[in-house]
């Protein structure tokens, strides 16, 4: 399974994060298994994917999965994609044969390297603002908070001991 994000119709699919995102920013998280099913269907470019082929690709040929396992994965996928079996936009069931992905798959343009984005954020002061309180003062350091919590725990333990 390819892990690079891609477009599926109007959706953005991110296999690494098991996430599907709509153009308005809404997101749905799905299980890794359901993401494998979605990717297998999308990789077929509108061609029929039989139940047997789906088991081979997603469940490594474990035919014990059977029709119930496939139906459960397809149901979860349809639920995440907000579609019904009667009015499919993404996944079409071909009775007694298999499934077809109706939406075209397109690769996303390559992402800007993280180090370049980090440098751009530094230049715009984004990282500096992230470490300030809303009143402009510096935020408390986590080590101080941890030390205070440990000190409080020590006093509570000492009080229980005496």
Automatic annotation (TrEMBL):
<feature type="domain" description="OmpR/PhoB-type">
    <location>
        <begin position="3"/>
        <end position="103"/>
    </location>
</feature>
<dbReference type="GO" id="GO:0000160">
    <property type="term" value="P:phosphorelay signal transduction system"/>
</dbReference>
<dbReference type="Pfam" id="PF00486">
    <property type="entry name" value="Trans_reg_C"/>
</dbReference>
<dbReference type="GO" id="GO:0003677">
    <property type="term" value="F:DNA binding"/>
</dbReference>
<dbReference type="InterPro" id="IPR016032">
    <property type="entry name" value="Sig_transdc_resp-reg_C-effctor"/>
</dbReference>
<feature type="DNA-binding region" description="OmpR/PhoB-type">
    <location>
        <begin position="3"/>
        <end position="103"/>
    </location>
</feature>
<protein>
    <submittedName>
        <fullName>Winged helix-turn-helix domain-containing protein</fullName>
    </submittedName>
</protein>
<dbReference type="InterPro" id="IPR036388">
    <property type="entry name" value="WH-like_DNA-bd_sf"/>
</dbReference>
<dbReference type="GO" id="GO:0006355">
    <property type="term" value="P:regulation of DNA-templated transcription"/>
</dbReference>
<dbReference type="InterPro" id="IPR001867">
    <property type="entry name" value="OmpR/PhoB-type_DNA-bd"/>
</dbReference>
<keyword id="KW-0238">DNA-binding</keyword>
């Amino acid at each position: 399974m390819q892990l690079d994000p891609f477009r599926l119709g109007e959706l953005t699919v991110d296999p690494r994060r098991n996430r599907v995102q709509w153009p308005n920013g809404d997101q749905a998280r799905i299980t890794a298994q359901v993401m494998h099913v979605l990717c297998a269907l999308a990789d077929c470019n509108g061609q029929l994917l039989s139940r047997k082929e789906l088991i081979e690709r997603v469940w490594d040929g474990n035919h014990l999965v059977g029709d119930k396992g496939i139906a459960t994965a397809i149901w979860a996928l349809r639920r995440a994609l907000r579609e019904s079996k009667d009015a499919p936009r993404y996944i079409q069931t071909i009775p007694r044969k298999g499934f077809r992905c109706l939406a075209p798959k397109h690769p996303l343009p390559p992402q800007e390297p993280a180090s370049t984005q980090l440098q751009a954020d530094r230049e715009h002061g984004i990282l500096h603002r992230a470490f300030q309180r809303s009143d402009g003062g510096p935020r408390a350091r986590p080590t101080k908070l941890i030390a205070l919590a440990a000190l409080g725990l020590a006093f509570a333990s000492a009080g229980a001991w005496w």
